[in-house]
Structures are given as structure tokens and as C-alpha cells.
């Protein structure tokens, strides 16, 4: 895909543009969504082709919408532990962790990646909700010595099986020993970067955290030029691949009224650690009482869906509503309509069937194992 004539997008100055915005438009972005009060490219022409570009070669995605909350100060580690039920006592400097941020009722406020840059310096790389405000509010009455701000940081995601070769072409051989969920600092011809082996794709991938917004255009073009011999294409985060991998989307698959146990994310909750965190008492109670609903994977019968769902679809069993489809899409690789859903706990059994109330009528859905593809995450982790 080549460059094309510049288009004009805009809803006004209250929606921020990323440092890569103009570059993405030049390279073919023709549709945007809003995420964390910023534009995110969601359309480079054909979502199925974007999926194949990702799983066969590599794509470069503007994910500057993953805003960072930076926490520094003598009590930074203690404060960050207050925000999440995941035990961070063994999180080393240079390591990343997928965490949940919970409120006093055990509800999930965000599911970010935590990066530990220094002993007393952390970034929370956000999904779509205002955790900067939450963290600053919590800090006021915490009695802890911390500073909380949004730094000048804008991530890109380079994802796909060729991403390692492209990174080697840009940064040299040293990048090859960067481990899954670890980070490293780089200077690329005067462009300051933090690079982590993470990403929202379930494929081999890297995130490049630019620390100078004025260098956004330069960085984008450098990566695209280096990636051209490897088939790199501009792209957007793939709904198809993330549902195949069982990756969750905040506001779709969970929200403030969802708790970790409903999602089967017990591994991210450590109730027996000594450290206190917001929601600990509520999550203890939920664990003891059990949950009334659970997330499941579904296969939906019938013709291929024309695109992802834009509404929650009701799930019915014996004429009663027992849950909802939260994310659904057709997977061209699996040749099936696949979905994530939240259903009553007694319906969350493999092989259970439902009627899905869809815009064009009802279809049958069956509970199956998730993730739908590469369940042990071998692709991303090796």
C-alpha cells in the first residue's frame, strides 16, 4: 500500500491527534475511532487483509491512545501495589506485567500493562478509561510520597511474525534477546524510545514507546522503510486476531461492573499477600461466595458475519435471557464465527447451546474452549 493524498479528519480540538496521525493518513488510514479521548486508526481498507498482513508478515499500528500514567517518588512501588490485586513484589526493574486495576467493590477500572522502568518509576499503559484521574484521586488521601502525571509518551505496535527481523534491521542483533514482557531503553538516531516485547495481537510483537512527540513522523517513516523488504504494512489492531487469542477489550468484554473471577482471571488476584490493595475485601467476599456469571467462548452458526458486533447481542436459553455476546467476528482462518460472551454461571459449560438474538434474526451458538487459536500463547512468547 503506497502513500495517498492527505485527507481531513476532525471532530474538534477536544479529541487529540497522535504524533503519528498525519503519517497514518498518508499511508492509507481512512477511518478512525476515539479511545482515551484520542483518534485511533481503525480502517486501512480491508480488515480481513489487515488480519492476514498481521499473521503472515507484520503490521505497524498507531496505538498512541495507550496513554501512560507515570508514577514516581519514594513510595511509587507501594502506591502501584495499592492499585492492583496482582502481586508485584517480584516485578523487577525492566519487567512488564499485565494487571487489573480494581475499585473498592472489586470492579475492573482498567486492564493495562505495567512497566517498571526504574526502582521508583512506573508506567501504566492504559486501556480505554481515565486512570490518571483515579490514581491522582487515590494519591491525595494515601499518605504516600508519589508524583503522578501523564508523560510525553506515544506507543507504536509492530506486530507479526516478521516483526523480529524488522526490529533487528533497525536496532541490530541486541534486540533479539529482549524477552517476552520485558523492556529496554534505546536511542534511535536521536529518537528516545522504550521498547517492550508486548502487544495486543497474540503474535510476536514489540511496542515502541516514543518519548518525544515531535519525532513521531520521523519514527513512523523509519520503521516503514526498514520493514518494506519484509512486507510490513500499515495497519490497525485486529479484532479478528484478538478475539481468536481471547484478548479482552475494555468497555466491551468487561467494565466497572465486571470482576476478575467472572473473567477467569483468578491468576491476577493475590488475596493472600500481605500488601493491601483497593478492592481486597470485596474480592475476598466474591471468591468465597462465587460468581453468578462467567465469560465463555462461543462459536456462532450460520453465514460469515460481515463485521464485528456493534451492540451486545442477547443470549437466550429456553426462552430466557441468560447473557450477552460482548465481542463477535468471523475468523477467515478458522472459518467460523467466534465470540466472547458473558453468561449465567450455570450456562457456562462446554457444549451448552444458546439462541443469539442478532439484527438479522436468531442463530445458534455453542460454548467452546477459549482462546480459539494458539491457546498456550506460544506464538507471542517464543
Describe the structure.
Helix 5 (163-171) packs across helix 6. The model has no long low-confidence stretch (mean pLDDT 96). The protein has nine helices and 21 strands. Strand 12 (183-188) and strand 13 (191-196) form a beta hairpin. By secondary structure, the protein is an alpha+beta fold. The two termini are 29 Å apart. The strands form five sheets. A six-stranded mixed β-sheet has the order 12-13-14-11-3-15. A six-stranded antiparallel barrel has the order 16-19-18-17-20-21. Among the domains are: 21-66 and 153-243, 2-Layer Sandwich (Gyrase A, domain 2); 292-382, Elongation Factor Tu (Ef-tu), domain 3 (Beta Barrel), CATH 2.40.30.
Structure summarized in a few sentences:
The chain is of the alpha+beta class and 382 residues long. It has helices at 21-26, 47-56, 76-83, 131-140, 163-171, 216-227, 239-244, 280-289, 378-381; strands spanning 31-35, 38-43, 59-62, 68-72, 96-98, 101-102, 108-110, 113-118, 121-125, 147-149, 154-159, 183-188, 191-196, 205-210, 233-235, 293-300, 313-317, 320-331, 336-344, 353-358, 361-368.
